[in-house]
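Hi R.,

Quick one: here's the Glutamine--tRNA ligase sequence you asked about.
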Amino acid sequence: MTEYSNTDNNEIKKSLNFIEQEIEKDLAQGKNGSRIQTRFPPEPNGYLHIGHAKAFCLDFGVAEEYGGVCNLRFDDTNPVKEDTEYVESIMEDIQWLGYHWANVYYASDYFQQLWDFAVRLIKEGKAYVDEQTSEQIAEQKGTPTRPGVESPYRNRPVEESLELFEKMNSGEIPEGAMVLRAKIDMANPNMHFRDPIIYRIIHHPHHRTGTKWKVYPMYDFAHGQSDYFEGVTHSLCTLEFTVHRPLYDYFIDELKDGKDLDDNRPRQIEFNRLNLTYTVMSKRKLLALVKEGLVAGWDDPRMPTLCGLRRRGYTPEAIKNFISMIGYTKFEALNDISMLEAACREDLNKRATRVSAVLHPVKLVITNYPEGQVEMLEAIDNPEDENSKSHTIEFTRNLWIEREDFMENAPKKYFRMTPGQEVRLKNAYIVKCTGCVKDAEGNVTEVHCTYDPATRSGMPESARKVKGTLHWVSCDYAVQAEVRLYDRLFSVENPGEEKDKDFRELLNPDSLTVLDQCYVERYAAGFSPLDHLQFQRIGYFTPDKDSTEGHPVFNRTVSLKDTWSKINK
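And here's the predicted structure, written out as tokens:
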């Protein structure tokens, strides 16, 4: 949350973002009894993505920083789209990132209070039942430069609106036939004040209240009041809600019947959303990808959902570090996904266990190595950790190496395996390539070499330098594995701005490559989903939940280096 910087006299100075500055100002003035209470209010109609993470890192973060409280409140005002599945997934994602709410609330907890408030507005002549179609209402609202036109039902008798509102909730009125609108100002320059709809009819069971209610409050009517009911002091939301803020304040003023709330009201502060290159953050579009089978579910590792990032091998620390890097401002920006990948590499470099894996294998035969001999060589789990453990890897006469690590006719600066050239096999010996074997089509089936027994790693002669070091696994002891190479979901930088194409047309056809003839060292096959591995010289990987006994599956989290920008320049 808070950044720190060195001053000229080497003291550490706290650098606050603009939201923290406003909060500290409110605390200094004693507003809301000098307390801080925030909330994270997701709608349970889908899985959280990394954009939501930016929001709740702020909500929970400032509460922690200033000794306050952050509650989780589900905005469950549209039963058609909402489900307990989403409620559970949202809770899991928040906890995975390391945050804990003080209380769990639902907008549906306040349905009776909101209904009573709506009835009071009708009785005071500040709300009415409108029977126009949604198209007619939209047309009569006017434009930012043209005032709206009053509804023909705007001045219907209070008793009539009360009776119709009751019928709307009893099930006697069909969906779409009527709405309840607040009576405010059809000429207001803020379009949200032009008699906004505050209730609509939905004949669909609610995941918590069942069929008790047939009318449901709109977001603008439910949100501010819910904040007030709970004692929220700072309502932090994204910039698109800036124009909603006056209406947010208006309803809270009406709720308290005009009493002075300047010193005791929720304060809405807006910040920029998280937009990321090569993906979309629209929940509607993400849902379409899932429903149409264009991805393998909400937790597909190509998705920007938190469960997708988790399955792919991203860590909570990497995500929070990335969010800290981009910060909170009042200006919208498109953040480069390479920044997220860099944050992930930096974190995984410190925690990932190093193992050997060969994705495109070709056999290497050490012709002067004794047949049947097995040596147990030591490999450090993580050289970045001075307290790292080590494990053993089997070394035998026949090994698998990467096919690209051999070239029969190599250019001058090729420092891998080629006839007549020496390389080191990592943690093992220096070997010298003597040639290769090919099949009838000219494909290399085996590479041959000899080894120098005096050059085993750790022996005096091992200090002899060669320019290339190759990774390998034993043909006799390695485990065959499936490896899924994930890449960016879309082929264009900002798919959301491509107006002349459907976003489905912009999907990257190479976002997933499945390799099923890979080999990993036996040690690597013993890890579980959410463990973090570095396949040496290849990238960072994690076991997938699809792994079975004898058939491990690994997802690439991120490559060792950013190669996308070079390829796509």
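The longest helix spans residues 50-65.

Cheers,
M.
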